[in-house]
Design brief:
Elements (H helix, E strand, L loop, with lengths): L4 H13 L10 E2 L5 E5 L13 E9 L4 E4 L7 E4 L9 H5 L7 E7 H9 L12 E12 L1 H29 L12 E6 L11 E10 L4 E4 H4 L3 E4 L7 H7 L7 E6 L21 E10 L1
Antiparallel strand pairs: 1-2, 2-6, 3-4, 3-5, 3-7, 6-7, 8-12, 9-10, 9-11, 9-13, 12-13
């Protein structure tokens, strides 16, 4: 049964009022068992509400291991504020924050991995120990507010991407017209083998680069082509479409808009940024 907002905040108020003496110096403990040390912002923003989308900076781990660090991601860490799933859940702590606050929480490692991660306790973390979460609340929005913000951001980035693609096409004297999807398919060498069809297993050599010319990946460097089943979503949509135009032995250049690549969620930690068009030089090696 879904807890309404009034009931949720009533529970949190009772938990906060009932703080007991903590075994961790500098920390207070709620009645549910969550240890917390909150540093309030000098210019506090809005408080959070149940179902709000929280944008946070966060690290968490055990005493000797960092298990997650949001600063290593290329896009913000966001989560929906839900009701605590177990006694001492850090979700309770998030509900105690205002935008701009920083906090440190300690929660049961056993409960977190069993209830939240659903994996059971890792072998390198002792049963009965605590995980430490370091959090800064950057923003809190309703789903409607976040959706409107993302739509506005997407419109701005779409215009920028179109300008970048047009500049690249002009500077590289590309005369082929894009496909209906927006993909540019430029055959650079014909093939004479079997056609790549949806559902077939293909082997493809490739070199991927940004519009700046920077290489971000290459199967040639590894000495082995990539193998996948075409048209089944195992690769980005621009590949599923582009490889489908090829025959064994052919080579082509694919200029792929971000909507057919990684959009606003590229692989973390790499050279590809949100809304990046990509260029791939590809060679169809085999079709089965």
């Amino acid at each position: 049964m879904k807890m309404n907002k009034i009931a949720f905040w009533s529970v949190l108020s009772l938990m906060a009022v009932g703080c007991t003496e903590s075994k961790f110096p500098g920390f207070e403990q709620t009645e549910s068992g969550l240890y917390h040390n909150i540093t309030r912002s000098d210019n506090p923003g809005r408080s959070v509400g149940l179902d709000d989308i929280l944008t946070i900076e966060m690290t968490y781990g055990s005493d000797d291991s960092v298990l997650f660090d949001s600063k290593k991601m290329d896009f913000p860490t966001q989560l929906r504020l839900g009701s605590p799933a177990y006694n001492g859940d850090v979700m309770e702590g998030f509900g105690m924050l205002n935008v701009g606050d920083e906090a440190e929480f300690k929660t049961s490692a056993d409960s977190f991995f069993t209830v939240i991660a659903g994996t059971g306790l890792p072998h390198f973390i002792d049963s009965g120990s605590f995980l430490t979460f370091n959090v800064k609340l950057l923003n809190a929005q309703t789903l409607e507010e976040l959706t409107a913000e993302r739509e506005a951001e997407a419109e701005i980035n779409e215009v920028k991407e179109i300008e970048l693609m047009e500049k690249y096409i002009t500077e590289n004297d590309i005369t082929v017209e894009p496909k209906e999807s927006g993909l540019y398919f430029i055959e650079t060498a014909p093939g004479s083998g079997a056609s790549a069809e949806r559902g077939s297993t293909v082997k493809v050599h490739y070199m991927g680069r940004l519009l700046t010319g920077e290489k971000f990946d290459s199967s040639y460097d590894r000495g082995e082509p990539i193998e996948f089943k075409l048209g089944t979503g195992m690769v980005i949509p621009g590949w599923d479409e582009g490889i489908g135009y090829m025959t064994v032995g052919s080579k082509a250049t694919l200029i792929i808009p971000s909507i057919l690549a990684y959009g606003d969620r590229p692989p973390p930690g790499g050279m590809i940024k949100p809304y990046s068009p990509l260029v791939f030089d590809v060679e169809l090696v085999e079709v089965n």
